[in-house]
Amino acid sequence: MRIGVLGTGNMAQALATHWVRAGHEVVIGGRDAHKAERLATRMGGGARPAGLRAAAESGQVVLAALPFGAGADVARELREALAGKVLLDCSNPLGPGFRLLTEGGPSAARRLAEAAPGAHVVKAFNLCHEDVWRMRPPVFDGRPLAVPVCGDDEAALVRVGELVRDVGCEPVAGGGLDRAGLLEATAALFIALWVAEGADAQAIAPPLAYAAGPGHGGEAGGAAAHG
Ligand SMILES: NC(=O)c1ccc[n+]([C@@H]2O[C@H](COP(=O)([O-])OP(=O)(O)OC[C@H]3O[C@@H](n4cnc5c(N)ncnc54)[C@H](OP(=O)(O)O)[C@@H]3O)[C@@H](O)[C@H]2O)c1
Fold this sequence. Notes:
It contains eleven helices and twelve strands. The protein is α/β, with parallel strands linked by helices. The strands form three sheets. An eight-stranded mixed β-sheet has the order 3-2-1-4-5-8-11-12, with helices on both faces. A two-stranded antiparallel sheet has the order 6-7. β6 (about 95) and β7 (about 100) form a beta hairpin. The structure holds NADP nicotinamide-adenine-dinucleotide phosphate.
C-alpha cells in the first residue's frame, strides 16, 4: 500500500514504523523538511521524506498525525490531493483538564471530512498512548489490542483494518463516522482516568459474556447480576 504521513511527530513515528516494516511504501510529510528527512532516515525501509502536499499526493491512505488544532486547516489546504484517498485520523481534541474541545459541535474526524470532502475519513488509533503503538506487537495478557475503527466507506475500512493488523492489533468495527466523536470522548474519559485518577480504565468494562445480560450471550452475567 502507498501511505502518506502528515506530520513528523510521535504518532507519525510510532505507526508508520510498523507500516514500513510490513513492506508498505511510506512517504513522511512534514512542514519542516529537516524533521521529515530525519524521521524517514530513522525509519529506513525505503521511507521517503517530503512536504505535506507531496505526502498527501503519494498515499492511497494518508495518516493525519497532526494536533487537533491544525488538522482541519491542513486538510482544507490539501483537499484536492486528498480526494478519493483514505484520510486516517488519530487525533484527540483535548484541552486543559482533558476537556473535549469539540463539545456540542462536530467531532474532530467530522471536521476533517468537512475540510476535505472528497476524502474517506476513518477514525482509529486515538485511544492509546504512542508508546503502546510502538510495541511490537501491542499484546496484553496474550490478547492483541483491539482497535475500534469508525468510517463510512467500506473499502477505506478494509484498508485501515489491514493497517491495524500490520501494527499487530485486531480491528473492531466501531460504526460510521458519526460515531467517531464517541471514540474521541472515550479517549478523553480514559486519559483522565489514567492520568488524573491513576485508575485502570481497562477494568471498567465487564467481559463480553457479562456485558448485555441474559439473552445476549450473557447468561452467566445475567445470573450473576440477578442473583
Ligand atoms: N502522542 C500520543 O500518545 C497520542 C495518542 C493518541 C492520539 N494522539 C493524537 O495524534 C495526533 C498527533 O500527536 P503527536 O503526539 O504525534 O503530536 P506531535 O508529536 O506534537 O507531532 C505533531 C506533528 O504535527 C505537525 N504540525 C503541528 N502543527 C502543524 C501545522 N499547523 N501544519 C502542519 N503540521 C503541523 C508538527 O510539526 P512541527 O514538528 O513542525 O511542529 C509535528 O510534526 C494528535 O492529534 C494527538 O491528539 C496522540
